[in-house]
């Protein structure tokens, strides 16, 4: 996928897409689950979304309920089932990034008292793998499994530090910083580019109320043995707790934790 393309989630689960014999039922079952995930609650709505006959959809849904991938709740309809919750936790635990990073995230949380995030890039979006809520009674809309535009978040900018400017521009166009309190208001491409140039040169990124009013964060990239950026971490809080002076002081702390996680992944600091 190029930087100017947006991810096409619908085609990935097209139940009638060309596929080897024997896989169509699987693809249709996945399409049913995706439809329910997207809000379809009855057979009529699921059929409309996936383009499969009602009788076939009913058989698929019944099988998925029997195997606990879906639930059928009175007065509600179909919802995702407990089997998917179990698999989700298993996948999360099996993903070494979160496991390796956790001690460093816990250390940041204990040191700062702020909200801590670990995220990776998923096409044109940030995918949050871990969130440790802060101790200051603050709540942010981010959550594990949530996605946000790369250009609008601190961790997203940190994930883009090695990218070329044309990719920055494309991602800025897809999901520019949206808060009117961001530097320059709803940021122009030129303002965003200048910030990214500075962040890339210094190895960190700031969220200056770009994504949510009153929320600021300091983020740094995580690298693997190839020196490529594979994740990012951040420390986030509200403006009263995250002055620009404190943000500058936090850069070395966040970079240090990111370097620790990177070392766990085989990254070696390049020395002059």
UniProtKB/TrEMBL annotation:
Known SMART domains for this protein?
Answer: HTH_ICLR (SM00346)
Pfam families linked to this entry: HTH_IclR, IclR_C
In which domain of life is the source organism classified? Bacteria
SUPFAM superfamilies referenced in this protein's UniProt entry, alphabetically: GAF domain-like (SSF55781), Winged helix' DNA-binding domain (SSF46785)
Q: Does the keyword Flavoprotein apply?
A: no
What sequence ranges are listed for the domain HTH iclR-type? 23-82
User: Domain IclR-ED: where?
Assistant: 83-267
What are the record keywords, sorted? DNA-binding, Transcription, Transcription regulation
Stated name of the protein: IclR family transcriptional regulator
